[in-house]
Amino acid sequence: MVFLDRDGTIGGTGGGMHPDEFTLYDFSPQSIRTLNQSGLKVLLFTNQTRVGRGYFSEKQLLMGFNRMKAELKSHSAFLDDIFYCPHKPDDNCFCQKPRIGLLLEAQRKYNLQLEQCYVVGDTGSADMIAAETAGAKKVLVKTGWGINSLTSHRYTWKGIDPHYIAEDLMDAVNWIVNDCQKDRKEAPNDEL
Fold this sequence. Notes:
Blueprint: E1 2-4, H1 28-37, E2 42-47, H2 49-52, H3 58-74, E3 81-85, H4 101-110, E4 118-121, H5 124-134, E5 137-141, H6 146-150, E6 164-166, H7 169-186
Parallel strand pairs: 1-2, 1-4, 2-3, 4-5, 5-6
Helix pairs in contact: 1-7
């Protein structure tokens, strides 16, 4: 199971973008298709605080998700599910990253072992802290806010080290697929 952040990871600029302005990076459909073909479920998990702050409605957000899914479908790629937090930062909800409510919701829905999952995102202070708290494997991409997460904002997630630092989603996906193959080879064969 692979959890992908939206803004700065699969597209956009890194900040919470209006759904009408959000576009996927050119390499994202192929990256997601690679995960699909490898048999890994792909879940989007994203903070969308601008819904709660009134910049756009939840309906507009869902319409944006539908456009994104249609674009992925045109490239023979798909997301298995989408989990999002629409609350304002000061709502003190449990779902907003770096809290792990979205991951726990997915865990319940899909009966996951989070320590066997991957979290891919561009922000150390949200995505990587959430992954660390959940015990998942952490992959930081340098797109979006990734470079700043590694440099000027590194102090906000001090003491947490990604399992892998990727140039972009394609690089992250290649690492994840190789890591999964390595894990399968190292796992004991209970059927012998």
